[in-house]
Design a protein that fits this description.
The chain is mostly helical and 275 residues long. It contains 11 helices and no strands.
């Protein structure tokens, strides 16, 4: 029990840095935007309206979501690096940043694209409750605000690097030191799902989190799960740019996408190093 508590404590300390930085960045951004709105109202000679100013601040902040994610992500990685530097430990060694064989890169990228395709098709073919999908779409739309390139940089590159470092690099590896790997994978994936805001996204992220860990373990490198995550997010950004498809066609595509995912898992498994 003591070993489990110690491992959980270490994992919790590393995890808390992640939301703490997000809260700090959001608080600072809220204060800056609130001050801007107050200054604009004062310059226009308008009376202060606390409720209206608060709502206006939230609305304007939603447009800065990609920028805040970018800043908080880079800050989180820097803090992890700084902590390990002070402790005299190697950042890459602590999170298993090892090279993967070239013959494993394409299967991992294919795996990410296949599962994002299946995820996107499920949103359009499975009759989820309307409030589930509405909440998910509203949450996802906030990530597309800002300059044309900022959402792509944040979603495709920064978010995968940060989330894989936090959840698979630090949390899973620490938990695994004090409990069986399946239990560590389960707890890590539950936490990963809980951090994604909406119920529908959380359900998908739980199973995706387990798959990220499977890739990490198969290739024995965080680079593999980062590549998988990058491919997953990049495919999600590209799919809405394709022409619309009729509902009956989408229904026929879903089983094919599921078969594609099975083939991708098999390919990635066969391409990973011998254990």
């Amino acid at each position: 029990m003591g070993k489990i508590l110690a491992a959980t404590g270490r994992a919790a300390l590393y995890f808390l840095i992640y939301p703490a930085v997000q809260i700090a960045v959001s608080t600072i951004a809220f204060a800056i935007v609130s001050a801007q709105i107050a200054a604009e109202a004062m310059a226009a000679g308008e009376a202060a309206d606390t409720a209206a100013s608060y709502n206006q601040t939230l609305e304007r902040l939603s447009g800065y979501s990609p920028a805040m994610l970018l800043i908080s992500g880079i800050t989180t990685l820097f803090l992890y690096w700084l902590i390990l530097l002070v402790q005299g430990r190697s950042f890459s060694s602590e999170i298993a940043l090892r090279k993967i064989a070239q013959n494993g890169i394409l299967p991992v990228l294919f795996l990410g694209a296949a599962f994002e395709l299946l995820f996107s098709l499920s949103l359009q073919t499975i009759p989820y409750p309307g409030h589930w999908t509405d909440a998910y779409l509203q949450h996802a739309s906030h990530l597309m605000y800002g300059t044309p390139f900022l959402p792509w940089i944040t979603v495709v590159f920064i978010t995968p690097a940060v989330e894989e470092t936090v959840f698979r690099g630090f949390i899973y590896s620490r938990l695994k030191n004090g409990m069986p790997a399946p239990a560590a994978a389960l707890f890590t994936s539950l936490l990963f799902a809980a951090m994604h805001g909406t119920l529908l996204q959380g359900i998908y992220m739980f199973f995706l989190g387990l798959l990220f860990i499977w890739v990490l373990e198969r290739f024995r490198s965080l680079y593999a799960s980062v590549l998988f995550h990058v491919s997953f997010n990049l495919t999600g950004m590209l799919l809405p740019l394709l022409p619309a498809v009729a509902d009956d066609t989408l229904s026929r595509m879903f089983p094919a996408a599921a078969a594609l995912c099975a083939a991708a898992v098999f390919w990635a498994g066969k391409s990973s190093p011998e254990r």
